[in-house]
UniProtKB/TrEMBL annotation:
<feature type="transmembrane region" description="Helical">
    <location>
        <begin position="123"/>
        <end position="146"/>
    </location>
</feature>
<comment type="similarity">
    <text>Belongs to the UPF0718 family.</text>
</comment>
<feature type="transmembrane region" description="Helical">
    <location>
        <begin position="12"/>
        <end position="30"/>
    </location>
</feature>
<feature type="transmembrane region" description="Helical">
    <location>
        <begin position="42"/>
        <end position="69"/>
    </location>
</feature>
<keyword id="KW-0812">Transmembrane</keyword>
<feature type="transmembrane region" description="Helical">
    <location>
        <begin position="271"/>
        <end position="290"/>
    </location>
</feature>
<dbReference type="InterPro" id="IPR052923">
    <property type="entry name" value="UPF0718"/>
</dbReference>
<feature type="transmembrane region" description="Helical">
    <location>
        <begin position="158"/>
        <end position="175"/>
    </location>
</feature>
<dbReference type="GO" id="GO:0005886">
    <property type="term" value="C:plasma membrane"/>
</dbReference>
<feature type="transmembrane region" description="Helical">
    <location>
        <begin position="310"/>
        <end position="329"/>
    </location>
</feature>
<feature type="transmembrane region" description="Helical">
    <location>
        <begin position="247"/>
        <end position="264"/>
    </location>
</feature>
<keyword id="KW-1133">Transmembrane helix</keyword>
<dbReference type="InterPro" id="IPR005524">
    <property type="entry name" value="DUF318"/>
</dbReference>
<keyword id="KW-0472">Membrane</keyword>
<protein>
    <recommendedName>
        <fullName>Permease</fullName>
    </recommendedName>
</protein>
<feature type="transmembrane region" description="Helical">
    <location>
        <begin position="217"/>
        <end position="235"/>
    </location>
</feature>
<feature type="transmembrane region" description="Helical">
    <location>
        <begin position="89"/>
        <end position="111"/>
    </location>
</feature>
Length: 333
């Protein structure tokens, strides 16, 4: 009985979150004309919709790429193209992230699918943290946002490349090749039924996989966007200016700010540039590197699809590695 109730409950929660999105999108503007709504509620609504509308196109891109991988990429192909040596395999993953225009909004379903197809966990982690920053769209937006401050653009790319490999290496040393994905009965059945369903039509199967994954990921995206919008609305930002010049506190604060804001990596450079007169170069880099690697909405997705212990250790690794690297960078300036 519980096997039936649990999926049903998940679907009810998902439909409720989708209903919340449509309510805020279509009805709040109509109601505010006749009912005086609190300013903070309207701010939460604006932040929530901006995060969601910014992320949805990339989620759609991510689930379609994920569906294409599910339909057209075999486990044997993934195992054949990856270097057998666990350490050598780190470099191709970082280079792959540099050529694919995928932001952190779309990366979780893609990495999840690749790991299911046989990609080692630590290689998937390199792609997970590196691709949202290293891709050409992010490079162009960062370069445009900071203009003459090209050191920030190139430092961001350099940090992302080196740290993604370092984080993947640490994950390998801790977890080796252990299984950290949450598998359900449907996942196991899909992996076996793939060959039997090839005659149905690969493009039709791709659409089915993409639609299923979109609604599955969408629930967690909406929940993460709602929590992030609440933080953005009620966070006292006057405190930021008081500590913006502190070389030790400023990077930590900007990392926390990047985590809470949950901005898309294609747009976060413009927000970071607005803090240019208040915060140090190192703290701006902390914001630009840490946020795409780990933010609030992605954390919820990670907990949904990976084991809790792995997600907690992964969060600690990313936080410590980025913070120490930024302090070393500031010491060399």
């Amino acid at each position: 009985m519980s096997r039936v109730i649990k999926p049903f409950f998940r679907e009810i929660v998902g439909l409720g979150l989708l209903g919340l999105f449509f309510y805020l999108f279509f009805l709040v503007d109509l109601q505010e004309k006749s009912i005086e709504l609190p300013t903070q509620l309207l701010t939460v609504n604006t932040m929530f919709l901006s995060i969601l509308l910014e992320a949805i196109p990339f989620i759609i891109l991510g689930v379609f790429v994920s569906a294409l991988i599910q339909t057209f990429v075999s486990e044997e192909f993934v195992q054949r193209v990856l270097p057998k040596n666990a350490y050598v395999a780190l470099l191709p993953a970082a280079l792959l992230g540099a050529i694919l225009p995928i932001c952190e909004c779309a990366i979780v379903p893609i990495v999840r699918r690749l790991i299911k197809k046989g990609m080692p966990l630590h290689v998937g982690v390199v792609f997970l943290v590196g691709a949202p920053i290293l891709n050409p769209v992010v490079f162009a937006s960062t370069y445009y946002a900071f203009g003459s401050q090209s050191v920030i653009t190139y430092s961001r790319m350099g940090f992302a490349f080196v740290l993604s490999i370092l984080i993947g290496l640490i994950v390998y040393l801790i977890f080796k090749q252990s299984e950290q994905l949450k598998w359900n009965k449907d996942d196991l059945m899909n992996s076996r039924e793939n060959n039997d369903n090839e005659r149905v039509g690969k493009w039709k199967a791709t659409l089915f996989h993409a639609s299923d994954e979109f609604f599955e990921m969408g629930k967690f995206l909406i929940l993460g966007a709602l929590i992030a919008s609440l933080f953005q609305t009620f966070l006292d930002r006057t405190l930021l200016t008081e500590i913006g010049s502190n070389e030790f506190l400023a990077p930590a604060v900007m990392m926390g700010f990047g985590y809470i804001l949950s901005l898309c990596s294609e747009a976060d450079a413009f927000v970071a540039a607005s803090f240019g007169q208040t915060f140090t170069t190192g703290s701006l880099l902390a914001f630009l590197v840490y946020g795409p690697m780990l933010d609030l909405k992605n954390t919820i997705m990670l907990f949904a699809f990976f084991k809790s212990r792995f997600v907690l250790v992964f969060m600690i690794i990313v936080t410590v590695v980025v913070y120490i690297s930024i302090l070393l960078f500031q010491g060399m300036l």
